[in-house]
């Protein structure tokens, strides 16, 4: 559909701020970590150089300790809250938020290298991957040191925003345990851009800000944050994305002749393959979140449960149970994959991460199914994503029931996923 291709390209160009792209104007006026990385896939379909630039600019914000922040505040924009002064960080060269986001970069960088398969273009891609490689190593080491300090082989998030899936029901119980700090009055901006019924609630925001206050109190020192943060929940989303990213990082290490690093990464992969069992919920027959502070597993299936396949966890039990969950959920909603199980009491079809479908999650889940040999379910996800975009446009997310567009409009990563996969 060349009209939609054109529209998708023009959204990326429109959201381009000169080397980096905002997710959408107004609602998210800065550079977001995993948004940017998915955006690179979109640029790669018509401008390889620009695709690399997106990721390179993201890594310009890397902290001294290795962390790559979830938001880079390259210039102040009053349309967003909480801005740089609320975060109060000083760990890196560019004002930023204080935590990270799902590490999709190594996977997409490998993808960029694999797309340019011949001659000079391939050499150039490999050269640029080589320049990013040490930064990726540093970032991945940071995740292992400060988001898995007890060596469980799973990655925790210190804030719902770090998971990228902000108001997921999985965080509810852990958030309830967060004491509300003296955060004073504050004015949200998101609900002036988007219908509040599609956004997190005030009770969530009070806790989002309270966690930030606790981290500010230890000056965002990563070891202190890991030790004292009131929220510390192992996330199947970040864990599986990280495990997958390590496999792709290993492939890059091998091609770049980085033998010592390759050996180090093999160790991480082995540890995480074993660690993933920590997230297995025997009753649900799926991977869920694990609250490391309370020692409890959560009780619902989210779209990230399906990312086990993308992470390369494809034993018979996982495969069969995910196929069964997929079919059950498909019988409940018209469009896959809802971000939360429609059979769960906390499911809400239009509220952000409590039910809506997200294009880039579908892309990752589909890759996992395809790589596991289940091309039928992979194709179903692609077709649903294409239908949603064809009828609802390049929205932030969509209702799994009606396909209605929800959240922000003219969204960069939805456009990128259209160009690189769904169309
Ligand atoms: C927001 O502001 O809602 C973002 O999702 C935080 O990353």
UniProtKB/TrEMBL annotation:
Domain Mannosylglycerate hydrolase MGH1-like glycoside hydrolase: 28-414
GO molecular function: Glc3Man9GlcNAc2 oligosaccharide glucosidase activity
Keyword line: Glycosidase, Hydrolase
Gene Ontology process terms (BP): oligosaccharide metabolic process; protein N-linked glycosylation
InterPro entries (alphabetical): 6-hairpin_glycosidase_sf (IPR008928), 6hp_glycosidase-like_sf (IPR012341), Glycoside_hydrolase_63 (IPR004888), MGH1-like_GH (IPR054491)
Pfam family of the protein (one): MGH1-like_GH
Sequence similarity: Belongs to the glycosyl hydrolase 63 family.
Protein name: Trehalase
